[in-house]
Amino acid sequence: MTITNVGFLGPNATFTAQAVSALFPSRDNKPYRTIPACIDAVENGEVDVAVVPIENTIEGTVNLTIDYLIHEKQLKIVGEVIIPIKQHLMVHPENSNDWERIDGIYSHPHAIAQCHKFLYNSFPNIQPIEASSTGAAAKFVGEHPNQKLAAIANSFAAEEYGLTIVRHDIHDFNNNHTRFVVLHKEMLDLDIKRDNTGNKTTLMVTLPSDQAGALHQVLSVFAWRKLNLSKIESRPMKTGLGNYFFLIDIEQKMDDILIPSAIAELEALGSGVTVLGSYPYYRI
């Protein structure tokens, strides 16, 4: 299938937009205000695929993405891209000379958390204000030059919205990356003009019952087949306390024998298994 339009968490110059540009540089890209809106756009046929964040090195899983995928819209993961995250403090040019006297700081909750040390040391009396994205924060600051505001965002946002970066690289850790997934209604092979870093298969697994050793049984299914798991994470089923499902990433593309036989064994043990996707991933 040829991808002609891509939905992403907007506005322009977000980190998600950067991920989209890396994979789909010549497509018609459409920004949406929230992650659920991006996912709904695929479900409704407004766009062919959507690109949304799913995990950050510092802040971990983007729970909104996982929960909306599992509980609301069952789309398939057809690709993944990992990009480095560099956060900067930026203000309107009119406020660049006295930026240390700003009254408010806007950004996405994850970006705020990624810059905790800087904010604590430099602006201990300012409570950052959450925005739907780093790009939205930069856009808001650019539209209000009469207010002493700052945004935490990337360099593309500063350029896009005419802001001045007054402090570079304010994130707490240098090895800061975010994983973004490409979502579609069905499994498909993406036509991307770059070499992929590797392949993954992602499963959602529910345990057969609340009994001792149930998770050990599940993991043993992969261990004796020498299927390498790059991630396993539990999330609440939202059906009651103590009820969880597990997201499992296998560092291998879906094959004809190993993964299907692992799924069959899991189901024989009484586990529920859903294949969320088998896809290439790219590291930028």
TrEMBL record:
UniProt catalytic activity: prephenate + H(+) = 3-phenylpyruvate + CO2 + H2O
Cellular compartments per GO CC: cytoplasm
Family annotation (Gene3D superfamilies): 3.30.70.260, Periplasmic binding protein-like II
Top-level EC class as recorded in UniProt: lyase
Boundaries of every Prephenate dehydratase domain copy: 5-185
Residues the record marks as site: Essential for prephenate dehydratase activity: T178
Protein name as it appears in the record: Prephenate dehydratase
UniProt organism field: Bacillus timonensis
